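Subgroup meeting minutes
Present: P.N., E.W., G.H.
Scribe: E.W.

1. P.N. recapped why we're keeping a running log of single-chain structure predictions: easier to compare across weeks, and new members can see raw inputs and outputs side by side.
2. G.H. added today's entry (134 aa).
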Amino acid sequence: MRSTKIVTSFIKNKSKLLILKRSDKVRSMKELWSGVSGIIEKEETPINRAKIEIFEEIGIVENKITLVKSIEKIKISSPQYKNHEWVVFPFLFETKQTEIKLNWENSEYKWINANELKNYETVPSLDKILFNLL
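Output recorded in log:
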């Protein structure tokens, strides 16, 4: 089975969480809602990749986020990718910044309450990842 290591970060502002709608230009999980995500490259640490993705995808610099929690990696399979698993390294960050600058990887963003996540079509197991971070 093929495996891809990724980070998924949730960004919290007061009681709200940021979710992003993946654009139709990305390779996988097009137009599904997710956290800030990205593939871990070579020998990179998950926390460093998470901070890079946060800056690239939503424009928040490292000194404007605080790590609240990280949990053990979670292995997830997706029906649309046969013989493939995603090894997800989850993070929860907090910020006071609410201004988001999306890059091409996402087409939309929303600040929601955690219990509203069920109302969105998300990448596989996003609710499970969030539940384990809260």
